[in-house]
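Sample log: Carbon-phosphorus lyase complex subunit PhnI.
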Amino acid sequence: MYVAVKGGERAIDNAHGWLAEERRGDPAVPELTVAQIREQMRLAVNRVMAEGSLYDPDLAALAIKQARGDLIEAVFLIRAYRTTLPRLGASNPVETAAMAVDRRISATFKDLPGGQVLGPTFDYTHRLLDFRLAAGDEVPAAATVPAQTGPVPHVTGFLNRDGLIEAAPPCDAVPPDLTREPLELPADRALRLQAITRGDEGFILSLAYSTQRGYGRTHAFVGELRIGAVAVEVEIPELGFAVEIGEVELTECETVNQFKGSKTEPPQFTRGYGLVFGQSERKAIAMSLVDRALRWKELGEDYVGAPAQDEEFVLSHCDNIQATGFLEHIKLPHYVDFQAELELIRRLRAEATAASRQEAAE
């Protein structure tokens, strides 16, 4: 037994060394720097920050490099590192209406105060490979457009003036912290939003797509999608006022959804909401659709058995680190378990064979 353990340790050390070689690749090719990943793979960096629940582009880029581009492994690294950090305090809620907008679009109003700002987007590209990038040629840059500053009102506020959309629910209570407390069901909306925003993008995307395909009976319009920087402020008790300590880039999406009304509410539009670190608009839109589907009970709607409506199903399976751990653990040694299963199968086969012979003899 001691020899087996010792041999296993050597094998693991060798595997780590081989992994480092594979991560580096051909030594003749220049090594990627963390700064290059941070600046040129920003969407991957944003996803790692969002699902890792830690806003630090440099650390996210480092995690991507260490993980050889495996974003779920990078998220795992970020979350593990996050647990070592002390909690020094809590910031005030960020004010997204004061966002310095880089991108702001609405699918419900063409002419809106502040205008539509297309920003950096793949939406209007032709999805053709640009071989100039392979040749190392610099692609001409677009003219720099300064971000909008000052308050930019939310589109849903225009609908709210006429009572055509539900009022935004109050959020005075301090929400629980999913990164420090285990998930408990049933969960309120604040806890659900936390779980979804750090959930796996592919899983949330699939659930959102299912609601559009009829599994949830929601038909949504993107009321507004905005991307930009918001200030982070912290109250300083000694000073008696808030101090700005930095800024973070966020993607916010508010969807406008049909609602036929209920016994207590008149026909009106309802809201779905998504908020994600960085430029992560696909995740933010998907998040808002799933958020709306999960609100069926509080809106007095019927439960139709759609996966996106099932709170326990969504929240218990959206976390890619938990899913990866449970999935990949089956490749680790299960020798004792398998031997027990093997012995059971052999015994059952022997009993079945003996019973067949006895029936033949009779």
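Observation: The longest strand covers residues 220-236.
Observation: The CA atoms of residues 9 and 15 lie 10 Å apart.
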